[in-house]
Fold this sequence. Notes:
Layout: E1 2-8, E2 11-18, E3 21-31, E4 35-43, H1 52-67, E5 70-73, H2 76-84
Parallel strand pairs: 4-5
Antiparallel strand pairs: 1-2, 2-3, 3-4
Amino acid sequence: MEIKQIEEGQRGYFIALDNETEAGRITYTFAGGTKIILDHTEVNDAYRGQSIGKKILMGIVNYAREKHIKILPLCPFAKSVFDRTPEIGDVLF
């Protein structure tokens, strides 16, 4: 499974690719230069129950750490993962 970022100006998304098949995505918007807002998570029905959303979120967390930015999880799924995973709280806005 490959996690890939697609940036489109101030918006973008991270996708999980299984070969050429999109397993899931989390969309975001930049808010200034210091934070990103996660607004939606989608997982392909064929990949449900495989922690695809969490794998994508962890890719975003790694990105945030590398870029020294914070994450504001407005997406209910992303917020629930942050609530249950204290070790990623360092990137929470």
